Amino acid sequence: MAFTITKAVIPAAGLGTRFLPATKAMPKEMLPVVDKPAIQYVVEEAVAAGLTDVLMITGRNKNALENHFDHVGELEATLEKKGDTERLRQVNFSTDLADMHYVRQGNPLGLGHAVLRAKMHVGNEPFAVLLGDDIIDQRDVLLSRMIEEQVRRGASVVALLEVDPAQTHMYGIATVEPTETEDVVRITGLVEKPAQGEAPSNLAIIGRYVLTPEVFRVLENTKPGKGGEIQLTDALQTMADAPEATGGVFGVVFRGRRYDTGDRVDYIKAIVQLAVDREDLGPELRPWLKEFADKLD
């Protein structure tokens, strides 16, 4: 049976230790990228692809995530009284984006465990998983393309990105076979963060997945792997090995703009890259950047 995919799961229980002390009291997902928290870009991407039912997997000290997507009566009343309609529109936009739900992960047992916590909410239908560290430029198509392939093939679909071979040890890496479609490959193997020089390809899994509900059954039987955590990569490997039972796993190779906000330097790059393309910021920022760069030794 073909389902209309409407549900998105966003794991957001991590501690954000790479951004301490900024994340001591604030969730890393709330760090601003220009003038919006990183998590809002991810929710906006889900909604743009037709996913209006969003479940966040959270943890302790993540109340700011729920507050951001909720009404703030005092702030709204103040802006309305001042006649600041543009800021009021921006505040209400995040509130009205999607039907938001939240569940705590509890024990931090890995991405696979976080996805498994969505089982009761998702039920027996395909769904998307979006990781908050990856921001996909809204001008480039990825998630809707993945949904299209999931519906067409009845399989799970992951997003793949060609990376520098020297960086493959930082990602889950796929072994693939070509299909009849240029940007789609069949995944035959997956390895989480292979040792330097041992990666089977340079196709890295990035933080977008469209999964069939069979993944829950597989995750329930997946033993802790690397780092003592239940790895989603291990579950996907099991599904790739049994296509007749699970539909298999395919990959959409993405060649658009992706911004990594999980690393401090890449986070700064993401802010600059997005800001220079903004009509309200770019005209002033671009010449300053050129002048600044000319002064660098």
From TrEMBL:
EC number: 2.7.7.9
Classification of source organism: Bacteria, Bacillati, Actinomycetota, Actinomycetes, Micrococcales
Protein name: UTP--glucose-1-phosphate uridylyltransferase
GO biological process: UDP-alpha-D-glucose metabolic process
Keywords per UniProt: Nucleotidyltransferase, Transferase
InterPro entries hit by this protein: GalU_uridylyltTrfase_bac/arc, NTP_transferase_dom, Nucleotide-diphossugar_trans
MF terms in GO: UTP:glucose-1-phosphate uridylyltransferase activity
Record's signal peptide: none
Family: Belongs to the UDPGP type 2 family.
Catalytic activity from the UniProt record: alpha-D-glucose 1-phosphate + UTP + H(+) = UDP-alpha-D-glucose + diphosphate
Recorded superkingdom: Bacteria
Domain Nucleotidyl transferase: 7-273
Pfam family for this entry, one: NTP_transferase
Gene (name only): galU
SUPFAM superfamilies noted in UniProt: Nucleotide-diphospho-sugar transferases (SSF53448)
